Amino acid sequence: VEHAADPYRILARIPVVPGTAEDPLASVLQLRSVDRRPYLSRPLRPHERAALEAAAGPELQVDWHEARGDRLRLARLGMMATDIRLRAQETFRVHQAVIDWTPGHSATGLPAGALGLDRLTLRTMRWAMAHWPRMHVMNRVAGTWAAAAQLDIRPALGSAAFFTLASRPATEGEDRTARLLRQGGAVQRFWLTAARLGLAMQPGIATLIFAHYGAHGLTFTTDPALQAKAARLSDRFQALLGRHPDDFVYLGRIGEPRPGLPSVRSVRRDIENLMYASQAG
Predict the structure, then answer these.
(1) How far is CA 238 from CA 26, 215, 243, in A?
(2) What pLDDT does 11 receive?
(3) For residues 39 and 44, what is the distance between their CA atoms, to the nearest angstrom?
(4) pLDDT tens, position by position, 43-70
(5) In 120-235, where do the E strands start and end?
């Protein structure tokens, strides 16, 4: 179904004018963003998969997880990661700092309205996030499953596929820093290509992060139960995907968005706000 007035579709068709941009992906730089809403559930088309795989280039291997069962299994890993980050006092402080509760777009944080939670859950979360003891008690009494169902299960069902981007084998003597920079560029091109195709994306980085912590036994919290849960998450991750978490660069879900852009989103700061005057002398 075509939505002629939808910015996703309009910008995806803008041709590159000679002399104005060397890269056709430049036209979607301002459109690209995280979209946590459920998408249309139609499968990816062959030309979309081919374009995305080409965008990942020789640095990254793209694997698609499109079947409903595969999406749900990855969503359950995401639920484990959500439970960890909602229960850890260390991540609570991060959430307090980055969630922006003011209406509208945010240039300094993550708008609460873009989290993917319903209004009742948002109101409850805002109340609980005022103080850690309050959040801790709420997590113990009510649990985190209601939030995780909205953040992980519902979006997984409303998507075309999950995808993983894995590192291809490094060549002997290859500089690791240079390789990571190339892989970062490949991830950006993958995401921009998705936007140009009229597709939306949501990263699943928390799953990778906590699977990495669990695989290496890294201490990320003072709560031993959450440390143990990260280890279980890592085991389930490796059992499901057949590879170590460190082999992966990126994980996310993708699909055709519903008509219209998200009502709120994080926006880029004006360049004036990113510049600092020299303090020399």
Answers:
(1) 36, 9, 5
(2) 45
(3) 12
(4) 999 999 999 999 999 989 999 999 999 9
(5) 161-167, 200-203
